[in-house]
Amino acid sequence: MTRVYNFSAGPAVLPQDVLQQAAEEMLDWHGSGMSVMEMSHRGKEFISIYEAAERDFRELLGVPANYKILFLQGGGIGENAIVPLNLVARKSQPAVVDFVNTGSWSSKSIKEAKKYCTVNVAASSEAQKFTVIPPRDSWKLSKDAAYVHICTNETIDGVEFQYTPEIGAETGNAPLVADMSSHILSRAVDVSKYGVIFGGAQKNIGPAGLTLVIARDDLIGHALSICPSAFDWKLVAENHSMYNTPPTYSIYIAGLVFQWLKKQGGVAAMEQRNIAKAALLYDYFDSTDFYSNKIAKDCRSRMNVPFFLRDESLNDIFLAGAKERHLLQLKGHKSVGGMRASIYNAMPVEGVQALVDYLKEFEKKHG
Ligand code: PMP
């Protein structure tokens, strides 16, 4: 068996130990005589899996007691509608929502939210081709926004917030909503500074199909009447994420990933490793003009690293050589071009080192 180094942006690499354990437990989970996929979501076996996953996630991210953790479906794109459906009714209609446009994913959130509210783009780095994050003091926030939406890690463009922006009293203390799909659990976060955090699981958490939402208690219970019941955070919270059938197998694997993270030393230890992994790549790109990363240094993502070959006519040869060395999924997103290495929690430092070794070898040959 050859396991590749998979640099996919998502669905993405999972820890091998987790896959191994899932394989061992596939036919008979803990003497139940069945796989987790076959269990009733209301049975005591699955409830124990769900409760452990919820508890471990809360512990790993330090989620305070006045926040609910919801295990939903619908992905990040679903939340682009589900968030306004749950939050805009707290204000007189039509409510205003502030957005900071830092790349493809916040742009998508803006487009969807326009169906449910008046959108104010408080700041945008589109003119800089999303290579920077607009500084907090340049944001033109509304007086009474229902919330302020940011995407804290832009998976496609490769920019990441390195701090939590304060939303002051002058804006009516609007809650901060963050799409953390592609870097949740990769770094420490002060959850108490956010009203809502959401993320699809398929990058840093587990299989696709599961979406995690962390919502402060006072922001739950305001869904518009048109909000589908399965996405009304109050109904979901009251039913411990079992209002409808949750994505049980994805929750099980996410739970194993949480246990693995705890064994690795938790989020703080992961963050140190992620800093070191990202530095291996960025330091190399900064040391040569054969490759380039175009992102402002203080906004560079630790998770998604876009890069370009100086001579783009070599792109296909580069990718073919990478594949021969079992370095997969390095082609950049079509909207950006070039290459992209996604180096989530489960990508070992050896994988990043193997990529750097290949980058050097390729440069020697073609530079
Ligand atoms: N937000 C971000 C930051 C993402 O990276 C993605 C997926 N790449 C999404 C939202 C959308 O996720 P999904 O396809 O699961 O809806």
Automatic annotation (TrEMBL):
UniProt-listed Enzyme Commission number(s): 2.6.1.52
Protein name per Swiss-Prot or TrEMBL: Phosphoserine aminotransferase
Binding of pyridoxal 5'-phosphate, residues: 105, 155, 179, 202, 244-245
Stated family: Belongs to the class-V pyridoxal-phosphate-dependent aminotransferase family. SerC subfamily.
Location of N6-(pyridoxal phosphate)lysine modifications: 203
Coiled-coil segments on the chain, per record: none
Broad class of the protein's primary localization: cytoplasm
Function noted in UniProt: Catalyzes the reversible conversion of 3-phosphohydroxypyruvate to phosphoserine and of 3-hydroxy-2-oxo-4-phosphonooxybutanoate to phosphohydroxythreonine.
Pathway participation: Cofactor biosynthesis; pyridoxine 5'-phosphate biosynthesis; pyridoxine 5'-phosphate from D-erythrose 4-phosphate: step 3/5; Amino-acid biosynthesis; L-serine biosynthesis; L-serine from 3-phospho-D-glycerate: step 2/3
Binding site for L-glutamate: 42
InterPro entries according to UniProt: Aminotrans_V_dom, Aminotrans_V_PyrdxlP_BS, Pser_aminoTfrase, PyrdxlP-dep_Trfase, PyrdxlP-dep_Trfase_major, PyrdxlP-dep_Trfase_small
Record's catalysed reaction(s): 4-(phosphooxy)-L-threonine + 2-oxoglutarate = (R)-3-hydroxy-2-oxo-4-phosphooxybutanoate + L-glutamate; O-phospho-L-serine + 2-oxoglutarate = 3-phosphooxypyruvate + L-glutamate
GO cellular component term of the entry, any: cytoplasm
Domain Aminotransferase class V residues, every copy: 4-355
Lineage, opening ranks: Bacteria, Pseudomonadati, Pseudomonadota, Betaproteobacteria, Burkholderiales
Compartments, as annotated in UniProt: Cytoplasm
Alphabetical list of PROSITE patterns matching this protein: AA_TRANSFER_CLASS_5
Naturally occurring in which organism (per UniProt): Noviherbaspirillum saxi
